Predict the structure.
Amino acid sequence: MNETLQERPIITLTTDFGLGDDYVGTVKGVILSYCRNAVIVDLTHEIAAQNIADAAMNIAHSYRFFPPGTVHVVVVDPGVGSNRKILALRACGHLFIAPDNGVLETFFEEDRFEEAFIIKNENLFAESVSRTFHGRDIMAPVAARLACGLDITRVGPRIAKSHCYRIRLPKASLARNTITGEIIHADHFGNLRTSITKEDIASFSRHRPQIKVADHIIDGISTAYSDVTPGKIIALFDSHGHIEIAVNGGSAALTLACRTGDEVVVLSSKSQTE
Amino acid sequence: MNETLQERPIITLTTDFGLGDDYVGTVKGVILSYCRNAVIVDLTHEIAAQNIADAAMNIAHSYRFFPPGTVHVVVVDPGVGSNRKILALRACGHLFIAPDNGVLETFFEEDRFEEAFIIKNENLFAESVSRTFHGRDIMAPVAARLACGLDITRVGPRIAKSHCYRIRLPKASLARNTITGEIIHADHFGNLRTSITKEDIASFSRHRPQIKVADHIIDGISTAYSDVTPGKIIALFDSHGHIEIAVNGGSAALTLACRTGDEVVVLSSKSQTE
Amino acid sequence: MNETLQERPIITLTTDFGLGDDYVGTVKGVILSYCRNAVIVDLTHEIAAQNIADAAMNIAHSYRFFPPGTVHVVVVDPGVGSNRKILALRACGHLFIAPDNGVLETFFEEDRFEEAFIIKNENLFAESVSRTFHGRDIMAPVAARLACGLDITRVGPRIAKSHCYRIRLPKASLARNTITGEIIHADHFGNLRTSITKEDIASFSRHRPQIKVADHIIDGISTAYSDVTPGKIIALFDSHGHIEIAVNGGSAALTLACRTGDEVVVLSSKSQTE
């Protein structure tokens, strides 16, 4: 009994729909129509409208907090109604349903990618398919059927990774004494996530690095907000392993007047003394 | 086993509560107290405060994406605490719980309406009923009990359709060579839904119609956003079958500086040449 | 069968995370990883950033609409990563998981408090624990395990109520002929909740009291919004038993230009005639 309950399939949703319309609700209605058993979890519906890179980084960070086998539906779909493909992709033991527009970029990496299929089998779609809302009419029913046990090979032809649409995500560039990155996300608290990761820093310097952002120099990397007095600007590793600029008890976005895309530079102790 | 799980009752919520208070959460707590088994789905909680017509159009569009038998609770209730009635209404194979203020207007139509009851049986209410929050204290417990199998005739006396409160929803008016409607909703993307439907257009002209909105003329009706170059204004049928004004990759609401209530006119090819 | 389903554990979430990031979603992923069976309900994620008192009052009002045994996770945690403790607290037949920062203040009251434990057993945490997100890495997995039946004594050592961190919440102060309180919350509709309760008033006067707010005098306490004509300012008891200032069909927050912290005074009929 318990075992069966433990197998209730999980479907997550990441979209740019917002919550003010009925879009998210109707997607859930469709999912429940095809897989009454599903547990549906909202990741976020506030991806900036049609911002594929933002959605790609979001799902890259969040999927791994769910059990293997979770079905993740990512609908940021500026090409809806065009001839862009829709993918069912297996990676990292999870299943992803999304337009073939780069939103699954991070899952094409060698050690993550497993296999991908083009969703083409119209028998699996909703009875009537609009030209403006494939999230509801194609992705939701197919995701629901897959979550409820449909064999993935049934959705359509296999597609090689090399034939999928790829995008470039912001990455830090490493030089001998500096790492140059950018702000990739400002969260609800005004914490600024950068494109510079723990791994970027690891290979870099054993000495206390300096972080330069918006003409402000931060000395060293703290381990928690509470390491410093309230109001002070710090750098630390965020809960996803990226360097984050934060203000203890405040908003770094406001304090530094920074936003997504602004440059962040890490200087090694060597470059600091030069 | 699976069959029983597939029968978990679904309850949807449409309100003007917003998500910043505990109102939505406490309604869900009450529902789960009376029907632990329920799957609760948010349609939207961002109906404009006390905007009955907006809620009426919202639930009219969304209910049909859920399985028959779903219980839909619509709480836009400016008359709470007054002597306005509360209805349990069957239509289209679904069940609706809402104040008798017109919010269920579209379900009174001949081919949709089945039967309606006034919710009056205080034994089914919460133990203590406030004068300001019947969504939580009356509608939630009754909806939950109905979802869990309570016979609808138990909620109170039957009421004839003709005794229910009716409202006028925006409808297009059809003349020989023009259809006059209005913008009824601006969505999260700035797409503008009009009161003009596919059916309105169908009976109208075989020639390429023109759509006039805010001194802008749109030629013909496209089938997808991607039919035109980014930034261009188009008209197309939205996923509910209404004419929608959109900008490929942008916001029609911003581009045209339009809002709800603004006039939209469709001209037949005949009227164009006159 | 039904009985087992009726025992699906409920976990509520109250946070200051907002819905724009993946924070809420990943917390849910972790909960489902440790308790697949859980029903997760959002109370609100729009507590003002790091506002402990706001969260304390919110959970104090909402918990009781859920069935006994519900697990409530409250993550407003400005001290994350410091040496502040994390509590598992039993009160009123419910279970609360939160930082030891006062957010559970109302549950320390004599007739509510049952027992409390410090969450310390690292075997119950996520595999890797960040210094910036204990909601996800500690509170979520422990809440999930408790919801799924873990004995509370396993989380760590018992802690006496007197060793927990306490805060002062806004309370009305009662004099012979006046009660002085303040606005503690402005809701989505612009209704203003005050710190003055039904009990405060009960002991006060049998005569029609006057309520003074922002140089405006309200005569008497109404029972429903619809008692007055639209646009009129009234005082009434809100659905939690607090005096609320409202405008029928409008926003008291806008009409009175009031906000949280502003003074509200109730005058007895005696003081009015003096």
Q: What stands out?
A: The CA atoms of residues 81 and 131 of chain B lie 5 Å apart. Chain B touches chain A at residues 1-2, 5-8, 10, 12, 19, 39, 41-46, 58, 61-62, 65-67, 70, 185, 187-189, 223-227, 236-239, 244, 249, 251 (CB under 8 Å). The two ends of chain B are 68 Å apart (CA to CA).
